[in-house]
Model the fold of this input.
Amino acid sequence: MEIIFAGLQQAIYLILAFDRELYSIIFLSLKVSGSALLLAALIGLPIGSLIGLKRFFGRDFIISLLNTFMGLPPVVVGLVFYLILSRSGPLGFMGLLYTPWAMVIVQTALAMPIVAALSHSSIIGVDDIVRKSAITLGATPAQAALKVIMEARYGIMAAIIAAFGRVTAEVGAILIVGGNIAGYTRVMTTTIALETDKGNFELAISLGIILISIALCINILFHFVQKRGIVK
Done:
């Protein structure tokens, strides 16, 4: 318990003292995770909507693939992208390995299947009478599809929240492709892992408290948007 209280005191001190290193780690964490979440939503939502609204050859295979990718071990994903982005890999010429962009890419790959699969589940859960009623009232197929998506908005928001949890908690994959370079690719989760290995539990606990607090605040914001969304 003493370590926990010491970690809490350290966290409060570092926050109030506007510690430069701490805030650079926090801002980089938010930048990487936020960018990955945005990309995952931009890619995953159209895929989830397409397979939820359309019937086509290979649809079941895509659904199975997305469900499988939801449970992929992060270290495996990190290894795959390390090989792709390494100097001898197919994208090695871009020089992305050990950069924040590599971390964004790997987090997007982890979060996108969650957004797509859960969005699909939400959309197919909408009663078909919604689409039929919209068409009966004169809506075009595109407008009817949009109506179905709007009916599934709470489930879609839950998918985004789940993806957010995935990217903010990630350690293994970003450690492989980012390298945990101080002042450049070191984020909160990798710093916690490093400080724990070093036995610096007070700093690790303080960063853990800050990470949980940030995640709680953002999830409260997501819940507010989900409850008070622009479409009620």
In short: The chain has one domain: 2-229. Residues 2-229 form a domain with the MetI-like fold fold (CATH 1.10.3720.10).
